[in-house]
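Format notes (please read before filing issues)

Several people have asked whether sequences and C-alpha cells are stored in separate files. They are not. Every record keeps both together, in the order shown below: the sequence lines, then the C-alpha cell lines. Line labels are part of the format and must not be stripped during preprocessing.
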Amino acid sequence: MFSRIFMDHPHSVDETYFEHLAFAGKFSLRLIGAGMAAFIHALIPCLFEKTASNMIADMYAKTHNRGQ
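Then the structure lines:
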C-alpha cells in the first residue's frame, strides 16, 4: 500500500519520491504565479497580456511525454 501511494507514480516518470516532490512543488508554485498573472491581467488588461499563457505552454512542454 505504501509503495502504491508514494512510489508508483514517481517511478512511472523516472523520478524518486523526492525528485517528484521537488518537481511537483515547483510546478505548483508556477501555476500559482500564472494564476496571479491572469488575475492581474483580468483587472488591468494591458498588464501580463501573454504571461500566463506562456507559462502554461512552457509547463506543458516540460511535462508532456514524461516517463514515456
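For reference, the curators noted about this record: The helical segments are 2-6, 8-12, 17-43, 51-63. Residues 10 and 20 are 6 Å apart (CA to CA).
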